[in-house]
Design a protein that fits this description.
- The longest helix is centred in the N-terminal third of the chain and has 44 residues.
- By secondary structure, this protein is mostly helical.
- It is built from 19 helices and 5 strands.
- The protein starts with a helix and ends with a helix.
- The chain has a 3-stranded antiparallel sheet with strand order 2-1-3, covered by helices on one side. The protein has a two-stranded antiparallel sheet with strand order 4-5.
- The chain has 3 domains: about 180 residues, no CATH class; about 120 residues, no CATH class; about 130 residues, no CATH class.
Length: about 425
């Protein structure tokens, strides 16, 4: 078989397996009952929005969603799904504006309404779930291919296996179309594709960086304002890699500071402006509903009422999330902190051995530095949005931020350095044996 055809075949196979893992938990990475129920408390919100669209006849983009109740007890996702699919609208009534915190569905309303117009009541929920899994798979494949260009096959294989078999905390988002995991990765993935394209070699690359960041982050924040700092820092990671890769050249030409501004400022400014634009747009649409600015601002601030720290504090929160179980088998219990420390130890030992052998490890530096830069992404939310990270309330959701994108870099980085060291050592040993013959 032609080598190129074989590569395409393997790539398509990986894509299909990953798609079905996110959509249907194909490999059983997550407990089936947990996979089915995870996120359904949140998923009821877009289903409510679909019900409202079907009753009223128009999308509620950026508008506060409506509370649909039967008596005093609000229904769960499965009950709302049954009402929507089977059009049992006699069981509900529209009772007014919902807490503005949940109005951050935004662009969800447009996409879900589009699917509703195409697939109707019976198949819309399934179609949106499939679309969510498909987009997540596409984003991850872009990341995998980007990493492949900078590491080796062993690194990519370790990442694929890690995602498919050892990452239930990311696979469980496969059916959750309120959270839309793909949108968290969207700005970073597009930036990876952009910085690898010929467009980034043009004289307008900094303007394009700004515009693409503005667009991709606008799309992300138009869904909701969850994990703003995480998305922004993740988006900057490809630029961090470029900066570290060219750092020696910048230092030689005495352009370390100027290059820092040129590389990082355009995408960062685009992301900030996207956040401000979506904020103002949502505020304006709230004004259109309630009729005056003071009431609109009051509603908009509902989700910002609780400020300060949760009971664990910032350091305590980080420690608690690091102490959360990543992998458990019989009596073996490995936390996220254990996983990170194990990778650090492996990297330290290998780099020390390389140094002892007086060999160069400059090829590993850009990717390694970018990996530890990406650690700021999950940590930023635990610090800046500490009150939102109360473990007992948001633990099962926030824990997934370790993957956005830190663990997606740490695992292949560790495998890359280790496998490349072993390969080079074996190669040198074989060459030595041949020279002695």
């Amino acid at each position: 078989m032609n080598r190129k055809i074989f590569k395409y075949f393997v790539g398509i196979l990986i894509f299909i397996v990953m798609l079905f893992s996110f959509w249907k938990n194909f490999l059983g990475t997550v407990d089936e009952n947990y996979f089915e129920k995870f996120g359904k408390h949140s998923d009821r919100i877009p289903v409510i929005d679909l019900i409202h669209t079907d009753i009223v006849g128009k999308t509620t983009m950026f508008f506060p969603t409506y509370t649909l109740q039967n008596g005093e007890n609000e229904k769960n996702f499965f009950e709302f799904a049954d009402i929507f699919i089977n059009q049992k609208y006699n069981e509900i009534n529209i009772s007014g504006l919902k807490d503005y915190y949940y109005s951050h569905v935004g662009l969800d309303s447009v996409i879900n309404t589009m699917f509703f117009r195409i697939f109707g009541n019976k198949y819309t929920i399934q179609a949106v779930q499939f679309f969510t899994a498909l987009m997540t798979t596409v984003m991850l494949m872009i990341i995998i291919l980007w990493i492949k260009k900078r590491t080796n096959y062993f690194a990519v294989l370790s990442l694929i296996l890690f995602i498919l078999f050892f990452s239930p905390d990311i696979i469980k988002y496969g059916q959750s179309f309120y959270w839309k995991l793909w949108s968290w990765l969207f700005p970073m993935s597009i930036m990876m594709a952009f910085t690898d394209s010929s467009l980034y070699c043009s004289k307008h690359k900094y303007i394009l960086s700004f515009l693409i960041a503005l667009f991709t982050c606008f799309v992300r924040f138009a869904f909701n304002f969850e994990f703003v700092s995480v998305v922004m820092i993740a988006m900057i990671c490809p630029y961090a890699y470029l900066y570290f890769q060219n750092f020696k050249s910048y230092r030689k030409n005495k352009k370390i500071i100027s290059a820092l501004f040129k590389v990082f400022i355009p995408p960062s400014l685009g992301a900030v402006l996207a956040f401000l634009a979506t904020t103002m747009l949502k505020l304006y649409n709230t004004f259109l509903i309630v009729g005056n600015w003071s009431e609109a601002i009051k509603i908009y601030n509902v989700s910002l009422e609780h400020t300060g720290l949760n009971a664990d504090g910032r350091i305590g929160t980080i420690i608690k999330y690091l102490d959360t179980t990543w992998f458990s088998y019989i009596n073996i219990n490995i936390s996220y902190g254990n996983l990170i420390i194990a990778c650090i130890i492996i990297l330290f030992i290998v780099l020390c051995l390389i140094k002892i052998r007086k060999e160069s490890f400059k090829n590993y530096i850009p990717f390694s530095l970018m990996t530890w830069f990406s650690f700021l992404a999950p940590i930023s939310w635990m610090v800046l949005a500490n009150v939102h990270c109360t473990y007992s309330v948001h633990g099962e959701y926030i824990i997934t931020l370790w993957y956005i994108p830190f663990l997606l870099f740490l695992i292949p980085n560790t495998t890359y350095v280790l496998s490349d060291f072993i390969y080079c050592a074996v190669k040198r040993n074989n060459e030595r044996i041949k020279s002695m013959e």
